[in-house]
Amino acid sequence: MTTSGKPVKNQFDLIVASPNAALDSYYIVSQFQVGNVNRAERSLHTAGGKGINLSRAVLSMGGRVLSLGIIGGYSGRFISSELERENIPFDMVLTSNETRRSATFISSEQMQATVILDPGSWIEPAAGDQLVQKVKSFAPQAPYLVLTGSLPPSFPSSYYAQIVREVRDTNSLKICLDCSGVTLRLAVENGAHVIKVNLKEFQETFARNGQGNLQIVRDVFPSLAQSGVELLIVTDGPNGAYIFPAGSEPFRVYTEVKKWVSTIGAGDTYLAGLLLAFNRGLALEEATCYASAAASAKLQQVVCGSLLLEDLQSYLPLTQIERL
User: Are 13 and 276 in contact, with CB atoms under 8 Å apart?
Assistant: First the structure.
């Protein structure tokens, strides 16, 4: 459902802005074989892209979210109808260009997922400007703004940095980033507060040779904190997440998960759970445990951002914290 009327203060828990939405298709096969014909046992098609996936996770956990983005063409109309069907509040910029598609092949026997991502089509600068204005308009209505996902090929790497500059003086607003590369570095330099990336993305963004291990995170974080970053979350698959809070000692949080359906989209769910937990008054360690349990619950679902609250609750006792 689109938003209407004049927003009130903190109408939402999160505002999520992501210019590169996607029509996501999921194909479930028993065993995925490269170079062979794979017959799907079933398929699903829905609205996707990191921003929409994160928004879906917020809604799954009972939160209030507004999803902002850019959509167009048949895929855009399909995304709009899916958001309506799922009751995810949204306010999209409409463009004449076709929104991208992505495909995920889930092997039920191998517990593996293979993803093919379309980079997206050319989008006119005016659409990007309209999205910036929407973000500025709604930013005061939530404590957190999340800028997430890749940028359309026609957008400059400084796009998120531009948004950060436009809204960073909004009272009490915390700006959160889930992106990588030059896009992340430029946005951080302009005053973002929270970063959530996976370990590979962090290495590729901040290590000189694009490689390294957890030590590179330790080495780089002081400079990020000096730029205004209050919290860095580096996810590392089954190893959990490494939490680096400014002014405090880092720690690892992890959840024991023995079986899963798909790991794709767990990071989006993690960030959604973390920010919701903060907004509900949980302290850092409690919030990261909640986020880890939420991400683990997502592992049991096909669609990115989907989870069952009973699964989340069942994973909380299996979640632990370890000092680094």
Answer: yes
